[in-house]
Amino acid sequence: MTEKHLIPQDMRSLIASRLDAVEREERVRLLFAVESGSRAWGFPSPDSDYDVRFVYVREPDWYLSLDTRRGVIELPIEGDLDINGWDLKKALQLLLKPNPVLLEWIRSPIVYRADRDAMHKIAGLGEKVAYQRPSAHHYLHLAESQYRRFIAGETRVALKKYFYSLRPALALMWLRTNPDAPVPMNLGELRGGVSLPADVSGFLDELLAKKAVSKELGDGVRHEALDRLIENEIEVARNNVTDLPVGDTELLEEANALFREIVGGQHEL
């Protein structure tokens, strides 16, 4: 399915109008806006939320202030539409920690609008910072927390919850088998870059087909091979994460230069 068919046109129009209102009312320019939830991950249900995330920049004078100003814009949740975003300064600060979430946004297969040059430069900085070890920590925490919360110790599980521990588990597998390639956000791309046992792949195909047409997958007995795969990836990552490369962590000045370049290119909004 092509990107333009992943989101219905009426919803794209509604999202576009909300993003236009953000720019107009907040006096900001959106550098990019993307889908970040299950629709971008590749396993939506018919009633899945639209999780729109964006990064924006303000006029230069806004940053030249003595007071500390909030770096987030959050719109009230409107039905199944959830829209919020980070100021460029906050986004770059989080990227330097590093925070792989921003890299996921940049790799989203569903892009509502974008300054491609700015996205490319932010992504380039992120690749130097949030590399294997920080990304592994991020996905290890996700896989462990979701598996422990919804699957471990249970006899029957809500089947849709498998996706929330499987995706980070596959991301850990990707980091191990594709060390020089960034982790894709989409589950289909993740599967294409790793080798899954046939029984796991078949079970996953069944879940994806059902989830695409049903609001609820219901519950079922645990899938032994899938549990074993998730548990194994968690264990391997836990044992090896400290040995992974961290990338270049001395990037504050480069981030400062990129911040000044983007903010300095702003005109009065």
How does this structure look, described?
This protein is α+β, with helices and mostly antiparallel strands. The protein folds into two domains: 11-130 and 248-264, Beta Polymerase, domain 2; 132-243. Helices cover 53% and strands 13% of the residues. It contains twelve helices and seven strands. The strands form two sheets. Strands 3-4-2-1-5 form a five-stranded mixed sheet, sandwiched between helices. A hairpin with a 6-residue loop joins strand 3 (72-74) and strand 4. Helix 6 runs antiparallel to helix 12 and helix 7 (132-150) packs antiparallel against helix 11. The longest helix is centred in the middle third of the chain and has 19 residues, at 132-150. The two termini are 37 Å apart. Residues 1-5 have low confidence and may be disordered.
Look up the CATH topology of the largest domain.
Answer: Beta Polymerase, domain 2
Determine Rg (CA atoms, Å): 20 Å
By oligomeric state, this entry counts as: single chain
Write the element-wise H/E pattern from the N-terminal end onward.
HEHEHEEHHEHHEHHHEHH
| CATH architectural designation of the largest domain | 2-Layer Sandwich
Question: Low-confidence runs (pLDDT<50, min 5 residues)?
Answer: 1-5
Order of strands, main sheet, comes to 3-4-2-1-5
Q: Give the % helix.
A: 40-55%
Total number of domains: 2
CATH level 1 name of the largest domain:
Alpha Beta
Question: How confident is the prediction overall: mean pLDDT?
Answer: 87
Largest sheet: 5 strands, mixed
Q: Please tally the β strands and state the result.
A: 7
Our count of helices gives 12
Structural shape: globular
Beta-strand content estimate: 5-15%
